[in-house]
Each structure stands twice: as C-alpha cells, then as structure tokens.
Amino acid sequence: MAKKKSCQNVRAPRVFSVAERELYGWVDEEIFTQPSVVEADTLPELRREMRLTADRAAEGDYVLEVAGPFDRLPFRAQEDRVHFHWVYSELFTRLGVRLPFTDFQKEVLSRCRVAASQLHLNGRGFLRTFERVCLHFGFLPSWRVFLYTYQLHAPPLGRGFVSFRAYQGRKLFDSFEKSIQEFKWHYFKVLPFPGKRLFWLDDEGAPFPWVYWIAKVGDFRVTALDPLKTLAFEFLQSLPAGLGKKSNFKCRWILDHSDADVGAFLDSLLKDMEKQSHFDRLMQRIKEAEGAGPRSILPSSKAHTTSSGVSASSTVLAPSVPPVSSSGATKATRKSTSAAPTKPFSVENEEGVKEDPAADLRKKRRKRKVSEASAEEAALGDDSARKHKVNPIDHAFPPDYNFRAALDASLTNAPIREILEPLVPEQLLGTAQFLACQLTACLQ
Hints:
The protein is built from 16 helices and eight strands. The protein is mainly alpha-helical. The longest helix has 24 residues, at 357-380. Residues 290-395 are annotated as: Disordered.
C-alpha cells in the first residue's frame, strides 16, 4: 500500500492574486493554506492498488494527475483547459465508491448544489451505505427518501466542507468515523483520457454544477413523501430497531464487509414479523406501481446504467469477514420472503469474474424449499402423497355426474349464460361446474 504522508508540518505559503481572492475569497483560509500531500512519485503505486471504476474495462478511460504546487481544492479548470474532477483516495480505498458516480449520488449532489469533493467523507459514507442497503432489498435508492431522512449541514457562509445530518428521530446510520480529517489533504485530479467523454460533462461538454466547489450550497429539503416512498422510508427505519442502545446501522461495518456478509446480516433482520410485514407491503406496492412508469424507488429489471453506459449499481467485493451485528449476533442464515426482491446488482471477484451474491442466495433458498417438500412427501408416504396432490373437484362428484346439465340448470340468467357458455370447452367442465355452483349461490 502506498504510504500516505501526514498533512502536519506541510505548509506552503501562498500569495494569491486579486482575481483569485475575488473568485475564492469565500473559502476557509485553512483550505488555501494546506496543499495536497499526494506526490507524483506515489501516484503510480496508488493507482495500481486502487480501483476507480465499477467496470474494470473502463479503468483506461481515466487519467490521474497530482495537484500542482499552488492548486487547491476549490480551484476549477480555466476556460482553455480540460475539465477535471477532484477526488480523494479514501473514496475508493475505504468507502468503495466507483466511477462513474451513480444516478442516485449525482441527483442528491445536484439537488443540494454541492460539489462532490466539497462533501465530507462521512457524508459520502451515508450516501454509499443508504444506496447499498436499498439495492440489497431489491429497490433503487430514492434521493427523496434520503433527503427526507438527512439534511445538508454547512458551516457559516459555506466556507468549508459540508456534510449530512439526520433529522430528529430519523437517524438511520452512525457516522463512518467520529473524527476524520486526514482525507482532506489526500486529493488529486481525475481527467478524461484523450478522446473519451466523461460522466461529469453534459452533452455540450460543460461540467455539471456538482463538479467544482460552490460558494453557496443549496438548502434543498423534502418535507413529504408519496405513499410508495413513505413505505420505503418506514421499512428502512424499522430495520435497525433492536441492534443496540442507539438502534442505528454501523455505517463502517456495512462498507467494510462483503456483499454476501452484509446481505446475510440484513436478511436476518427480517426474522422480525413486523419488519417482514413492512417489506412485504413495500414489495407489493412496488409490483402494483410497475406499470405506472419509471420511478427511482421501483426495482430495476435490468442493470441500472448511467449516461456513459456503465453499470451504476456495481460495487467492489470486499474481503470476506464473519458478519457480526452491533448487538454481537452471529452470522444469520438467509430468510425466505414471500416477495423475493429483484436482482439488485452484480460484483466482480479478484479475478474479474462477475458474480451475483443475491442470485446465489436465491438459488440456495429454492433448493432448500424443494428438499423440504421432498422430505414432507416422503414422510406422508406414496399413497398419502397421491391423495394430497389430487384435485378435490375431481372427487367431489360421481364419475357419471352430468356437468353440462348442471351448468345448464345453474345458468338460468340468460345474459350471463350468453357470455360464459362459449368460453367453457369440454375439457374444462370440472372448472365450469365449480363456476356454476358459485353463480348459483350468488343468484340465490
């Protein structure tokens, strides 16, 4: 691992021009005083050890460049230069963020009018954890639900880094770290490879508002949710209950563990009947709303892609660690649910082979159901099993029972008969008789 240099005692006196002071005078003095500690001789090693993209084939689309001796985080590309994007090494090595940013991340940044590099690492941790939990349960993360849970917190006049704070009574995650400062000085530039069009540029080649630092960040708030997103919010809020005194997810634990371990832990929470009920109602509403058009809360039937065509919901597979909840519970088995979530995302292992942990767990669940059914059938015996499988309608009447006559006698209502009789073929007489009995009871 490339060694990181401490930001202590690394000071570079800088005399800024009048134009620079006019453009960046709102920024805190410390941010101007402290340069990046990432140097050119350590960048190649850092690049080899750090994965930037969700799709390994897209690694070559990006070029890394260290900050110049007088470059600072708020600086933006000049008009005659190629637009770049400021990033921190910890985004990729500790939080598992990948390029390009997902639509959910970009939408939250756009609504809050804050640059990605202007957001504190804990704020990015909230975004990443929220996204990962939603994708595991089979629905796309909604920026409305997130901003209904968290609000943007900025220092006076927006002079420094901003973060997210939960509204009173809506806290979902603990901070990634209580006090984390060193990341601020391990920044560098990401530029497009010549001939490549990158995700932070629009169709006209101009950068989106969340690329460079903004003097006045937005104060966007969501005060109400529609019924479907309210169900999603209530379901997510019900999950951490019972994990400990504070009843919050450990953000760092979720980001440090593999998808399989996190999935097993999250599924174990559904053993609670109330949480399972919340989940079932949410998935039922999602199924009912599927025909209403695309929504950010609906499950994704295909890989969720960004404008660059790269899967936006992919994530790196972290080293496997035994899953332990904050309450000290041991690894839990996956619980079968009545409404199985759709395929949330795929991952790549160390050899670059794509895997789908959710599909593997679903396959194991199906095998377990088949084995349980076989064991039950063997216990009943061959004769009992055959009787158990027989359609009760076949034995409800004697073999010479005249179903057609019963149907004719039952359908005394001429309009109903004219509609139903052509729809009843000879091979469905058993079903027709059952329908006739039902109609007779209704007519009487």
